Amino acid sequence: MALASRVGTARVFGRVLLPTLAKGVIVRRPGVLAFEQRVQADEAAIRTVAALRAEHGPGPVRLRVPGRSVALVVSVEDVVRLLDETPEVFAPATAEKRAALRHFQPHGSLATRGAGRRERRRFNEEALRPENADWERAVRDEVDLLVRHARSTGVLTWDAFSQAWWRVARRIVFGNGARGDEELTAELGALRADANWAYLRPRREGLRRRFEERVRGHAERGEAGGLAHGRAVEDVVEQAPHWLFAFDAAGIVSMRALAVGAAGDEPGSVSVLESARLWPTTPVILRESTRETSWHGEVLPAGTTFVVFAPYFHRAHGDSYRPDLWPQGAPGVVPFSGGPAVCPGRDLVLASAGLAVEVLREQLVFRKRLREPLPATLDHFALELEVATPEDVMPRAHAGRGD
Ligand code: HEM
């Protein structure tokens, strides 16, 4: 029977789930990520899942959690089934996710069940089409400034990249008028830090209301060029917090793609996908069954929480940079999830982050790239990508003029 022993369960908690939680599920914690990079925590996590699979077969492997049914998915075919049968059989809005998301997006599609979810999901699918925002202008303007900054300092740091990327995100979501609204990002950041604690922190109603009013202000402007343009204000107020939040992941994935360096002349979108395979920003995908389900001859009760640890499935395709895997991808490689609840922002991310990566690669000469095998845990906060400065590029011209 695919039931983990007490020791096996303790290992899954100690090496897979707690380290993932500690890193921060909603907003990453720099100190913890630095530590986990030092010990390469994801390596141990992947090994733990592999050992369970070897011991128990295709699973899902039930964990011994008092009073709850929790199962770790260990087969590619089960990942595919879980995502394909979402949301009817497997609800994305698990108790944990709702507890986390209520801090800053209590009405978000991902936190909603039933008929309400259908409408909110449809709204997101429509609103997030790339043609609804002038992402190209936003990316080109902000990356241009970033390139100048990196050339003058000789380094592209996460801090500089992330400031530029947040300006891109605010412009894509709300138009140019939101470009400089750093308070919007800061308030969201504080709420996300609370969301990391899910049930364990009370909701800060005052801050959440202030943030919501700020979002409403931008939604009411409805500026052309932003996703909020032409949409009902209430719908934007409910869903846009997720959009802003999720652009952070797109920035992280882009910065890591730059650190890896291009292998050939693949499009930026392919590098973004591959970066998200190597270091998925949603490392744990959760689903809760709405009815009894049968798996490899074993029945699991309704209300079972299914846990997919994505790095285990992603790294089955190796620890090197594999642009050849994309754009088609491979079964079980699910950085944007999959099936009917696939990330509705995927195309917009691939367009905007893909362009940012492409332009930065064109405009900057990166001196180093990460060595293969690529590390299982990569702390993006600490990335400092050295770039050639104008003096490096043209030393002879100066010398020739006798300076
Ligand atoms: C690299 C960037 C991104 C990655 C890797 C990513 C990945 C994902 C994943 C894995 C999910 C499923 C979560 C789950 O089932 O619990 C998801 C859901 C979602 N994403 Fe993204 N995402 C990214 C960026 C974005 C952006 C920029 C937006 C919006 C502008 C967005 C909008 C959404 C929404 C609305 C959902 C919820 C869908 C639902 O309720 O069915 N995402 N994303």
Automatic annotation (TrEMBL):
Coiled coil: none annotated. Signal peptide: none annotated. InterPro entries: Cyt_P450_sf. One of its GO terms (molecular function) is monooxygenase activity. This is Cytochrome P450. It comes from Actinosynnema mirum (strain ATCC 29888 / DSM 43827 / JCM 3225 / NBRC 14064 / NCIMB 13271 / NRRL B-12336 / IMRU 3971 / 101).
